[in-house]
Amino acid sequence: MAAISREEVAHLARLSRLAVTEEELATLAGQLDVILQAVAQVGEVTAADIPPTSHSVPLTNVLRDDVVASCLTPQEALSGAPDAAEQRFRVPRILDEDVAS
Amino acid sequence: MTDLTSFSAAELAGLVARGESSAVEVTQAHLDRISAVDDRVHAFLHVDTEGALAAARDVDSRRAAGEPLGPLAGVPVAVKDVLTTKGVPTTAGSKVLADWRPPYDSTIVRRLRAAGTVMLGKTNMDEFAMGSSTEYSAFGPTHNPWDLSRIPGGSGGGSSAALAAYETPLSIGSDTGGSIRQPGAVTGTVGVKPTYGGTSRYGLIAFSSSLDTPGPCARTVLDAALLHEAIGGHDPLDSTSIPAPVPDVVAAARLGASGDLTGVRLGVVREFAGEGAEPGVLAAFRAAVETLTKLGAEVVEVSCPHFQYALPAYYLIAPSECSSNLARFDGVRFGLRVGDDGTRSLEEVMSATREAGFGPEVKRRVMLGTYALSSGYYDAYYGQAQKVRTLISRDFTTAFDQVDALISPTTPFVAFPVGARTADPYQMYLADLFTIPSNLYGGPGISVPCGLADGLPVGLQVMAPTMADDRMYRVAAALESAVGPFTPPAL
């Protein structure tokens, strides 16, 4: 049985903000199925009482002194932007017109 | 005079320090070599000729003024294109960043400049460091100098191929699951993944933040140690940087070069010494184990029962972190933007941008991670993988109660032909079978050339406890003194 359906892969693409083509969808569904069946092996390990590890270095957060230091100028920060206006990143409209109005 | 590109970094630094050669001469020799061979190797995505010569002139004038120079002053270095370089293109091997010139230097690059090294340029890599062959670079694959029809490993294939092709004596890589060590192994060069937190991630374009580790690549163990010392150590700009001095890796490499390993206990990882690797790789590994024994090391077999689950755990943890990290490529603050014609919404522009900007492996991993983190699957996939990560770390600590360091082949197979594994992504993932456990645990690993199989290089991996990087340098240098060097055929 497949671990993941084509419909689920299409849903994942939407969640991932990837406008994949129908052809890609077919290829990805097959490949993700193979990968998911392989990685599902982690389920073979009995680990009910084992704490999870999210990070290998046991560090706690540290706060630095709140002092003014040099940082990027607005011009530098915007230097790689695809579009900028009035010292801001310009983006396409966020809301549909019927929602915005 | 012998070609300057044939010298080690330590030798070149000596030539410059004694005034027997200038930094400009050393730099020009390597730029000339790049011009002569890189159309065939394609190790570089960008060569910064002017910047390199300016840095070299600066070293020469400082020397002329009698200023003290560091141990690598005037030595060229190539940097994997995943580390930001102020004003110099940084693409991470992706179309999404094809035209990006970062406004700041990564900490590693800043330290390279401070050490007086000369940055030649940026090296090719699998897109966002995801891959084991550089075939997933958006700008075409790198070719292995040992056999141009074969891959140089990945993701840092450019950094390792540049060493094997004598285009640079030093390079920088990044290792999330083996991206420094596996290219080192298949190109017959040295590759080091330092302890996680031992080298700064500031300015390293993030793939999997709990695993990503920048590190040194070189043709000799001593050169790797000198580079490690130059780039390592605490960085307040990286909150996961370890506030401790760099282990004395240079002294350890010099000690190891004496060829005496008396009193050193090494453990062969039982689970990695049998099936799963090519016969030629296993034969070279077993011969290296005999050599290490002759050098005085006591070699025993050690079991790490959960290592067999490292690969599946990694391919849940790394894609999960990647799906989150790569959300920043949304066509807003930097890089590509596609479809912004006034008719599309922000979300449509984002989806079109990411579809056009990302290659197939990045898409697979972003979607895989999105799946593993989604409600309903989180506990069975990502949560369970994190528990397996704990068990793998416990395997390491149990093993290090018995031995000083662990050894295995670096990678199950020698350099494979271009195109051999791209059709089946999981076959590509197997290249990192033996390197992934150290990333999940956080400890250091080194790959050092140990022999040839069918005329292609085989690497031996030494794994050490966290912040005991010096131990693996000693073992690797001893092996190198007994079996090296391995030189590829002339290009």
Order of helices and strands of chain B: HHEHEHEHEHEEHHEHEHHHHEHHEEH
CATH topology term of the domain at 4-258 in chain B: Amidase signature (AS) enzymes
Helix-and-strand structural type of chain A:
mainly alpha
CA radius of gyration of chain A is 23 Å
Number of strands of chain A: 2
Low-pLDDT residue intervals, each spanning 5 or more residues of chain B: none
Greatest contact pair?
A-B, 54 and 71 residues
The number of helical elements of chain A comes to 4
Reported for the largest beta sheet of chain B, the result is:
11 strands, mixed
- The amount of beta strand of chain A, in percent, is under 5%
| Widest sheet: strand ordering of chain B | 1-3-2-4-6-5-10-11-9-7-8
Mean pLDDT level of chain A: 89
Mass-distribution shape of chain B: globular
CA radius of gyration of chain B: 21 Å
Summarize the structure.
The complex is a heterodimer of chains A (101) and B (491). Chain A contains four helices and two strands; from the N terminus they run H-H-H-E-E-H.
Written description of the protein model:
The complex is a heterodimer of chains A (101) and B (491). Chain A has helices at 6-15, 22-39, 74-77, 97-100; strands at 84-85, 88-89. Chain A contains 4 helices and 2 strands; from the N terminus they run αααββα. In chain A, strands 1-2 form a two-stranded antiparallel ribbon. In chain A, β1 (84-85) and β2 (88-89) form a beta hairpin. Chain A is mainly α and 101 residues long. Chain A is 36% helix and 4% strand. Chain A is flat and about 55 Å long. With 491 residues, chain B is of the alpha/beta class. Chain B has a domain at 4-258: Alpha-Beta Complex (Amidase signature (AS) enzymes), CATH 3.90.1300. Chain B is built from 16 helices and 11 strands. In chain B, a hairpin with a 2-residue loop joins β10 and β11 (456-463). The radius of gyration of chain B is 21 Å and the shape is globular. Chain B starts with 8 loop residues before the first helix and ends in an 8-residue tail after the last helix. The mean pLDDT of chain B is 97. Classes of the chains: A mainly alpha (101), B alpha/beta (491).
